Amino acid sequence: MTRAPAAISALAFVVVLAAALYAQLMIEARDNEERAAQHAFARAHIAQNLQNYLDTRFRSIAGLVAQLAMSDATVEEAQFVKLARAFHENFSGVQAVNWVDREGVARWIVPLEGNEAVKDRNLSALDGPGSVIAAVRKDGRPHATGPVTLLQGGRGFAGYFPVARGGETLGLVNVVLRFNDLVDSIAALDPRGRISVGLYHGDAFVAEQSNTPDKPVVSSLSHELTVLDQVYRLEVRAHGSSSGLVSPMIPVLFVNTLFAGALFLALRQIGLLARSEARFRDHAEIVFDYLWETDADQRFTYVSGAFEKIVGRPASDFLGRRLSECDVTGMSEAALREHSATMGQQIPFANFVFFVDRPDGTKSWISSSGKPLYSSSGRFVGYRGADRSIDEQVATERRLRKAWEHAEAANRAKSNFLAGMSHELRTPLNSIIGFSEIIRDQMLGPVGKPQYVEYANDVVTSGRHLLSLVDDVLDLSKIESSTFELSEDEVELATAFDFVCRGFRRLAESRGISLEVEVGENAAYLRADTRLIRQMVMNLVSNAIKFTDRGGKVLILSERDDAECIHIKVRDTGIGIPEEHLARVLEPFVQVRETALLSHEGSGLGLSLVKRFVELHGGAVDLQSVLGEGTTVDLAFPENRSIGR
């Protein structure tokens, strides 16, 4: 060794250099994998945040629409402005909330300042909004425009939500959002400025955030963003300088000692590890609000720097203590005990929700996730996890729940009012019908002129029609207020069908319509409310005769399927119902009047009551129809209501 120190030194230098190069290759490969994995994770988090950003606002607008539709009076400007202003103040990024009347004219603008160009504009005459308004009128569902140039200036999109009551569209609620506000909302999720997003509609570029990092794009991933019925492509881009494989060994070649070269390699690898750690920390801050660790006894040993800002209490209140000892509250009394038991079993957990009382009296809602941590020898040493604040999510859920409770209360009040009014109307109606029958039948002597008899007969017919309508409304109100009780017994379907046929035989014959009955041998008896069975079949037969032309056929039948369920079907050869209206005709007070062929008198309650009655029996309604061929209504009753004979 003393004879050839240079050779020994060179050999040692080559060995160390080779080891350092190999280590660097491994670190670079791991660095690239971590960057790709963390960016994919950040992409999903950012895309989910943007989707939640939109969905939260659309759910709130749906609640606003529900409140406008609940009122029995016409929608007034003051009522709309109050609700729209509250929405505009609660949610950022909203350019305007507008009321668009039935003709497509923007009448009420909130806020008006900065949106004067929209006031009294006929939006249905514009290319983009016009087609969307037409789509909303056609199917009665919310729709959104594609990217448009806003009348207020800039680029954005508009959502249109129909306000309907009793099948009638009163107007549209139009909410306008800017693309720049949407994409800039991710700034808080990327405090270090290493992530940017671009928004595309199809292949067309729409917008990107205003503070895009100036570093080159290292990688990019795409995610779909749904805006009502429109689909955008969200491109999430990672910026930074690609580290590549820059060898630090060249300077070592000019150094005559092994120790200088080894020191350089060590410093180089320490720097790589520091960059990798910083990258992990950056992505962790994007996805979570703070990190924590516990020991094997579930006592906190570490919380990251953002803990005090999010929780609102000093870290010293938690370090060295279990969560149950830190004056926090779970979703229920047993929640903290169950959570502690889960950690005691060394089981990973996700989205455990609790809240902490801040010193100012407010609550900080936290969603916590963690996994057990083991030493290299396999010994359990504690938990490591990450938490995030869900204050906005909790506040949104409370607002939605409150709006739903108000809607439910209004619906119950409406049902109680209708039930009370129906009772009040029946007494005078029965008197009118009774006295009119006395006059028509001349029970107390001749009335003089024959026209009086005809008039009295018209009064009787109209009164009975109105009484039938009142009875339908009363039944509907009882069902909606949950006060309707079934009077169940054994129903012989042949007898029930015969009762209906006797009532409609003369009407069917006068219109040249064949009225037939088929009762299956294994589907002859049913445990149900006799009156409701008759009422359902009468409503269906009445509709079938009404919409069947001369020479047609109406069939009432019963049968049992393979699941032992009994079906009552009413089938006609009438004019049929358009496919797009099949679901609507089962709603209360809805008649399909868009087609002249279907424009007949009636209250629009018949099929709705049939649906409610069969659901009271635990069954379901299936409606099938083909224009020009006929309609079949299938009432399916569950197996426990069938009676075998």
In words, what does this structure look like?
The chain contains 13 helices and 24 strands. Strands 1, 2, 3, 4, 5 and 6 form a 6-stranded antiparallel beta sheet that branches. It is elongated and about 130 Å long. The protein has helices at residues 5-70, 77-90, 127-139, 179-184, 249-253, 258-287, 307-311, 335-344, 391-441, 450-480, 493-510, 530-546, 606-616, and strands spanning 94-100, 106-110, 143-144, 148-149, 155-165, 168-178, 195-201, 204-208, 217-227, 230-239, 290-294, 300-303, 328-330, 349-357, 363-374, 380-389, 488-492, 514-519, 525-529, 553-560, 566-572, 620-626, 630-637, 642-643. It is of the alpha+beta class and 645 residues long. Helix 11 (493-510) packs parallel to helix 12. Residues 1-5, 242-249 and 593-602 have low confidence and may be disordered. 43% of the residues lie in helices and 25% in strands.
**Alpha-beta content class:** alpha+beta
Number of strands: 24
Strand content: 25-35%
Radius of gyration: 37 Å
Largest sheet: 6 strands, antiparallel
Number of helices: 13
Terminal Cα span: 109 Å
Mean pLDDT: 79
Uncertain residue segments? 1-5, 242-249, 593-602
Helix content: 40-55%
Task: Describe the global form.
Answer: elongated
